[in-house]
Design a protein that fits this description.
The complex is a heterodimer of chains A (about 375) and B (about 120).
Chain A (H helix, E strand, L loop, with lengths): L11 H6 L3 E5 L2 E6 L3 H10 L2 E4 L4 E6 L3 H8 L11 E8 L5 E11 L2 E6 L4 H10 L6 E4 L3 E7 L3 H6 L3 H4 L6 E6 L2 E6 L8 E7 H16 L4 E3 L1 H10 L34 H10 L3 E8 L10 E4 L2 E12 L4 E9 L9 E6 L2 E8 L8
Parallel strand pairs in A: 3-13
Antiparallel strand pairs in A: 1-2, 3-9, 4-7, 4-8, 5-6, 6-7, 9-12, 10-11, 11-12, 14-17, 14-19, 15-16, 15-18, 16-17, 18-19
Chain B lengths: L6 E2 L4 E3 L4 E4 L1 H7 L2 E5 L6 E2 L4 E7 L3 E5 L4 E6 L1 H5 L3 H4 L8 E5 L3 H4 L4 H10 L3
Antiparallel strand pairs in B: 1-2, 2-3, 3-9, 4-6, 5-8, 6-7, 8-9
The chains are: A alpha+beta (about 375), B alpha+beta (about 120).
């Protein structure tokens, strides 16, 4: 394989200066950690952390037909999404397989910002263009920047810059001018903590970043890498595209039925998904909390009564719970609904695990 | 243990004159937070460069190889219970297991502390 040169986010120089360990991720050169995954994870759970998420795709969808286009395109209900709100949704193939999971923010009644996974941006945009109809306009913003400010102190930090940001409800979004920079600020995140995701054309957020770090340092804010982002999201059971979601598993198999709204009318994948809902899914997405030492990893077999019944799609040591946690798919007919105990095969040993419905981590 | 008395492998294990084995300070630093350690059973015969323990961080698992041939005569249960000790004291409380060496001269063929320092400077990261 001839690897294309890795892309760098606008914050690249900041990451290098801050001692970030940079690794290739979905075609980007991204910081995996600055100090250690454990320290960054704990900072986000206890204080605050900031992540560079500029690698994620930002696509604006606008025009009189924008809403109808998105409503047809994704599984969740965009029809009723009011300006100032965001919603999680899935982009599905006609057979129900997941092309991507994304966040749709409604800024105005006919203007939306869609945030997609870096690894899927090209596929998504192609798919969107193929399905574009009517007076909807698609504007890909390849030079965009984005930050996620996450943690119990995130609100106090943002409050210093903008009362409007502080006033945002969960899943709220607004276009704000902060220190002269035009930013889209949303009360969302991928960590399970309170926080904000901030999107902008590159220059504006780059100007805001030093102010954010300086102000945040009073609250223990530190830059965090993809390593902690992964342990934080997995403690919440949030899916990671490419691990837990792909085109070969349906939105329902992935346990994301809550984001599939059959009542809203037609959308791509509806027929297949409705059929699956009626007849039952072949596979089931489960959470496993290890009852003994061991670190489950992607690809570890899930075992029930000594037999392999599925595979771990994401696993880690949970820094908050001090035990191994995993999610993965099991074959529905080999995994009874009431099963409360299974095992994960790690280094050829079956480590017992409790079957749980994520989130693994709950705020006390 | 005095690091200057230890011998080191290219796979970043150390072995003391008495056969005690651990991972280098450089290795623990590269691995970062150790969250899981699996050790061999006492009595197990090992060949040089045979994988016989596992050290895991949040992100990845690392095989730990026997620096020399011999048999495992002791293991450090303390690091199994509290893996962070491997980070905190790689040359002291963070030791992993102890080998009765089949041929103690084999240890002399490994890198000295000074040679190892040079090795990690030149080895590609």
């Amino acid at each position: 394989m001839t690897g294309a040169p890795l892309q760098r986010t606008p914050f690249y120089a900041h990451h290098v200066a801050a001692g970030g360990k940079l690794v290739p991720f979905a075609g980007w050169e991204m910081p995996v950690q600055f100090s250690t995954v454990m320290a960054e994870h704990k900072a986000v759970r206890e204080r605050a952390g900031v992540f560079d998420i500029s690698h994620m795709g930002q696509v604006w969808v606008a025009g009189p037909a924008a809403r109808a286009f998105l409503q047809k395109l994704v599984t969740n209900d965009v029809g009723a999404l009011p300006p100032g709100r965001g919603v999680y949704a899935l982009l599905c193939k006609p057979d129900g397989g997941v092309i991507d999971d994304l966040y749709i923010y409604c800024l105005e009644t006919d203007r939306f910002l869609v945030i997609v996974n870096a690894s899927r941006a090209a596929v998504d945009i192609k798919w969107m263009k193929e399905n574009l109809s009517g007076d909807a306009m698609l504007i890909d913003q390849p030079q965009a920047a984005a930050l996620a400010l996450q943690g119990p102190s995130a609100a106090k930090i943002m409050g210093h810059f903008s009362a409007d940001a502080l006033a945002l409800p969960k899943n709220g979004v607004a276009e704000l001018t902060i220190e002269g920079n035009e930013l889209v600020v949303a009360r969302t995140g991928y960590t399970g903590e309170d926080g904000f995701e901030i999107f902008s054309p590159a220059g504006h957020l780059l100007q805001f970043y030093p102010s954010l770090l300086k102000r945040g340092s009073d609250y223990g804010l530190i830059p965090c890498g993809l390593g902690a982002r992964d342990t934080l999201r997995l403690e919440m059971g949030y899916r990671l595209y490419g691990n837990d979601l792909d085109e070969h598993h349906s939105a329902l198999e992935a346990g994301l039925g809550w984001a599939v709204k059959f009542g809203k009318g037609d959308f791509i994948g509806r027929d297949s998904l409705y059929n699956e809902k009626t007849k039952g899914s072949h596979r089931k997405f489960i959470g496993l909390r290890l009852a003994d030492r061991g670190v489950p990893r992607h690809g570890c077999p899930i075992v029930l009564d000594g037999k392999g019944v599925g595979e771990v799609t994401s696993g880690t040591f949970s820094p908050s719970l001090n035990i191994g946690i995993a999610v993965g798919y099991v074959e529905a007919e080999r995994f009874p609904a009431g099963a409360v105990r299974a095992a994960v095969r790690i280094h050829e040993r079956d480590i017992p695990a409790d079957v749980v419905v994520p989130p693994f981590y709950k705020k006390s | 243990m005095d690091p200057l008395q230890l011998r080191f492998t290219q796979s970043h294990e150390w072995i003391a004159p008495d056969g005690t084995v651990g991972i280098s300070d450089h290795a623990q630093h590269e691995i970062t937070d150790v969250v899981f350690v699996e050790l061999p059973k006492t009595g197990r015969a090992v060949k040089a460069k045979e994988s016989c323990a596992i050290v895991e961080s949040v992100k990845a698992a690392f095989d730990i190889y026997a620096p020399v041939a011999g048999s495992v005569i002791a293991v450090n249960d303390a690091v199994v219970k509290n893996p962070a000790v491997v980070n905190q004291a790689p040359y002291e409380g963070g030791w992993l297991y102890k080998i009765a060496m089949s041929n103690p001269a084999e240890r002399d063929g490994l890198m000295t502390h000074a040679q190892y320092q040079e090795f990690i400077k030149t080895a590609a990261h």
